[in-house]
Amino acid sequence: xxxxxxxxxxxxxxxxxxxxxxxxxxxxxxxxxxxxxxxxxxxxxxxxxxxxxxxxxxxxxxxxxxxxxxxxxxxxxxxxxxxxxxxxxxxxxxxxxxxxxxxxxxxxxxxxxxxxxxxxxxxxxxxxxxxxxxxxxxxxxxxxxxxxxxxxxxxxxxxxxxxxxxxxxxxxxxxxxxxxxxxxxxxxxxxxxxxxxxxxxxxxxxxxxxxxxxxxxxxxxxxxxxxxxxxxxxxxxxxxxxxxxxxxxxxxxxxxxxxxxxxxxxxxxxxxxxxxxxxxxxxxxxxxxxxxxxxxxxxxxxxxxxxxxxxxxxxxxxxxxxxxxxxxxxxxxxxxxxxxxxxxxxxxxxxxxx
Length: 354
Ligand SMILES: Cc1cc2nc3c(=O)[nH]c(=O)nc-3n(C[C@H](O)[C@H](O)[C@H](O)COP(=O)(O)O)c2cc1C
What we know:
The chain has 354 residues and is α/β, with parallel strands linked by helices. It is 32% helix and 16% strand. It binds flavin mononucleotide.
């Protein structure tokens, strides 16, 4: 199916992202699935990602993968990026995705204050907010930078094509970006530039552990999982300060997480958050948020709007999240106009795994 006859248009075109060739402009958004007992991705996990890669997804981004520090997360079925069985499991995943011409990025994750205190270890946060969490010392900061560096090294050995740093949704890195949770008075808190210093340090640490040619993607958001109205940047100028710090530290691609891709990021312009990211930094960006959730999307003005924004260079790639849970072949089917074989997203799809 060519771009001219499919409703998906230029989204089906091969492209390159920071030098990485991709078979389409579709990304699989990172989605936590809790299917990796002991932190080790199973053959079922490899088959799950392969199924999306062989059905038109150019770049798979894994679910959040915990870096190897006890404070990163406690959930035992969330995968980890550590040497040993987890690395072997990830090698199987990257082999399967590559076997079908796909590319795959590992999303590195530290839950910060969203981690529950377990075994007497409190959650680690910038300033002890939310309450009962442990405000990170400078020594703690160094330990987490080392954990990210080590995890990136494991990702390289396991065959990943790229690394994504999760700095969105209210988890540790975003807690540094957000003034509500970052009340530090040292060089890691205060102005937007200071709040960006720790996430930028993580980017630098990851950069040192991966080849110069490997794309480093940074995912960020205004909203928090527990506060949709929260913001890290009140204006384009504040956002520019934060994203410039990411770019200087070595970010190659910005992944701007929004709940709906068409929502303007700031008053006075229709540009979305990914659009602002590219506009302010010149870096390629990924947009996401409510793309394709219903079958009707494929014959709606919303798809026209998405394609028009892509054509205008607002962003480079489009991520699909929930629709891929129950429709692993969504891109293939939509490209062929086989709408009857697609079903709308339903919450119950989150309980399935295939
Ligand atoms: C079940 C589920 C798990 C998710 N887990 C993650 C995650 O681990 N990391 C992340 O950055 N976003 C995560 N997200 C957010 C998605 O990546 C995506 O941004 C969101 O679902 C919006 O895209 P959509 O409307 O296409 O689903 C998750 C979303 C869902 C539904």
